[in-house]
Amino acid sequence: MIRMLFCLHRLPSLSLAEFQTYWLETHAPLVARHAPAIGLALYRQHHRLDDPVLGALLKGRRTDGAFDGVAELGWNSEADLLGGGSDPARRAANRALFEDEQRFIDLACSPIFFARSHTIVGD
User: Residue ranges of the EthD domain (predicted)?
Assistant: First the structure.
């Protein structure tokens, strides 16, 4: 499976709670609705836990500018990820998702990378 990991920083105007609520309750259904058009086989949201006890575990780690969450998207193949670039439905879906992302994600500060997954433990 080809994965895209999107390391999210929220817009400065949003609290962490506002960001996570919008991401889960508004953006997630939009992704689910457009998943078939963009060939998406997996979508997971990883929300940052803002807990002082857990924060203590991070001492000594480089956590300045910690991400507010990570979106994990998966395609079954590179062809599914890249295919259909000229398909009007796919272009419209990508445009709708990007327009919504601008409402809650600081895109300039939110890196994306692609990876091939290797599961060592678990599913």
Answer: 12-107
pTM above 0.85, yes or no: yes
Please report where in the chains the tokens 């994990």 appear, as a residue. Answer: 72
Residues of the chain with pLDDT under 50: none
Query: Across the strands, what pairs with 74?
Result: 3, 42
The CA distance from 2 to 119, in Å, is 12
Cβ 40 vs Cβ 16: under 8 Å: no
Kindly write down the DSSP assignment for every residue of 101-115, as one continuous string: HTTTB-GGG--EEEE
Residues 6+ apart with CB under 8 A from 50: 16
Domain carrying residue 27: 2-58+67-116
Q: Please give the share of the chain, as a percent, with pLDDT higher than 70.
A: 86
